[in-house]
Amino acid sequence: MTHLTELHTLRLRLRAWRPEDRESFATLNADPTVMEHFPEPLSHSQSDLLADRIEEHLQKEGWGLWAVEVARTQAFAGFVGLNRPAFQARFTPAVEVGWRLPRQYWGNGYATEAAEAALAYGFQSRGLAEIVSFTSTGNLRSQRVMEKLGMRRNPEDDFDHPGLPRDHRLCRHVLYRLTRSDWTAPRDREGAPAAPFSPEPREGPTP
Ligand SMILES: CC(C)(COP(=O)(O)OP(=O)(O)OC[C@H]1O[C@@H](n2cnc3c(N)ncnc32)[C@H](O)[C@@H]1OP(=O)(O)O)[C@@H](O)C(=O)NCCC(=O)NCCS
Questions:
Q1: Is the dihedral of CA 122, 19, 71, 101 positive or negative?
Q2: What superfamily in CATH does domain 3-203 come from?
Q3: Which pLDDT score, from 0 to 100, does residue 5 have?
Q4: What is the pLDDT of residues 7-28, one digit of tens each?
Q5: Of 29, 35, 54, 118, which is most buried by a Cβ count within 10 Å?
Q6: Model confidence at 78: pLDDT above 50
């Protein structure tokens, strides 16, 4: 059986998905503000299908897009984690770090804190040489998270998302990269919590 690694930060738990997360996830995916930088909000069944795919990957690999839980309240707060982009581009195959949080949790540094743990897991436990992140050019909030993580954008890496028509408002994407050596080097990452990652990831059976 594949063991799912859970990650713990100062304020968050990155854990396996639970059936009761589905309702909150559907609400999150139906919110037009959350989904502003995606082609459209998702219906409940589309949201469930996405959760199925995410859970399948987590169960198979033991890592992926973890469900985020606020430690203090145990509330579900979206997903953060690692994923393999399903499309082909100049930078694929690759592992990306990604996030989607309900609006009420924005602005607390949660995405950055959770992504720090995912990056540490990817570099330390999976031995990845590089982790990327990408988003549409207008998603400045997400790009700010990438910058706070110490990821760097080279405009020459900008690309058109192959899943979207060339004239689509979201087609043009920016790519941010972080290599393991840059990640281990001393960084100036203002805003990043001092010790967000529990060095001993806990392992438990997948649900
Ligand atoms: C992107 C997202 C995960 C950020 O979550 P979060 O927990 O608020 O992120 P953080 O608090 O860690 O950091 C957000 C940063 O963006 C900044 N920010 C907020 N709005 C911004 C804007 N319009 N332009 C630029 N920066 C912005 C914040 O000030 C903060 O930076 P700071 O710490 O220097 O002040 C969240 O907004 C989200 O789920 N968005 C919808 C889904 C999405 O777009 N996912 C990414 C698709 S690739």
A1: positive
A2: Gcn5-related N-acetyltransferase (GNAT) (3.40.630.30)
A3: 92
A4: 999 999 999 999 999 999 999 9
A5: 118
A6: yes
DSSP annotation string for the chain: -PEEEEEE-SSEEEE---TTHHHHHHHHHT-TTTTTTSSSPPPHHHHHHHHHHHHHHHHHHS-SEEEEEETTT--EEEEEEEE--SS--TT-S--EEEEE--GGGTTSSHHHHHHHHHHHIIIIIS--SEEEEEEETT-HHHHHHHHHTT-EE-GGG-EE-TTS-TTSTT-EEEEEEEEHHHHHS----TTS-SS-S-SS-EEEE--
Domain extents for the chain?
Answer: 3-203
Nearest alpha carbon, ligand 1 atom 8: 106
d(CA 207, CA 201): 17
Q: Would you say the CB of residue 9 lies under 6 angstroms from ligand 1?
A: no
139 lines ligand 1 (CB under 6 A): yes
* This model's pTM is above 0.85: yes
CA–CA dist 5, 124 (Å, integer): 13
Ligand 1 and 176: CB distance under 6 A: no
